[in-house]
């Protein structure tokens, strides 16, 4: 991740990624905000 932007090298590596890429995508697309707003209503 570079300055809150996703950046992929497309290199394959063994193991599990430490980055929470799914969460980052949801946050970047403002899905997290929408869910939080729904919870408050």
In short:
The protein has 41 residues and is mainly alpha-helical. It is built from two helices and no strands.
Describe this structure in words.
The protein is mainly alpha-helical and 41 residues long. The protein is 44% helix and 0% strand. The protein has 2 helices and no strands. The protein has helices at 21-28, 31-40. The longest helix has 10 residues, at 31-40. It is elongated, with a radius of gyration of 14 Å. The relative contact order is 0.15.
Q: How would a crystallographer describe the biggest sheet?
A: none
The helix content is 40-55%
Low-pLDDT runs of 5+ residues are none
Q: Could you say which overall geometry the principal axes of the C-alpha atoms support?
A: elongated
Averaged pLDDT, please? 78
String of helices and strands: HH
Pairing-aware structural class of the strands and helices? mainly alpha
Return Rg in Å.
14 Å
Q: Give the amount of beta strand, in percent.
A: under 5%
Q: How far apart are the termini? A: 33 Å
Number of separate helices: 2
User: Can you count the beta strands?
Assistant: 0
Please describe the structure with a list of short key phrases separated by commas or semicolons.
41 residues; mainly alpha; 44% helix; elongated
Please write out the topology:
Elements: H1 21-28, H2 31-40
């Amino acid at each position: 991740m570079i300055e809150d932007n996703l950046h992929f090298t497309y290199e394959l590596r063994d193991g599990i990624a430490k980055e929470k890429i799914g969460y980052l995508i949801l946050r970047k697309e403002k899905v997290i905000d929408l869910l939080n707003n729904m919870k408050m209503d």
